[in-house]
Amino acid sequence: MRSALLYYRKHHGTWGAAALHGIERGWHTLRQWKARWRGQLDRATDFGVHCGQLVQAWRDTAGGTRSPARPW
Questions:
Q1: Cα-Cα-Cα-Cα dihedral sign, residues 24, 28, 29, 34
Q2: pTM for this structure?
Q3: Residues 5 and 57: beta-carbon distance below 8 Å
């Protein structure tokens, strides 16, 4: 996730990285809602964790502007 943000920021600019982040987060949030609606609570939890990881990747890379310290 961090690598994708860095790539999109480098090759598509700030708006490209923000768009990637927004689309990914929105998609997985919708999948989380759908799983909850269907009663698949384990899957809903997994999608929630993934959304949290997307937010953490955004913070770690400052929106794709810097590479975090290794090891990731």
A1: positive
A2: 0.82
A3: yes
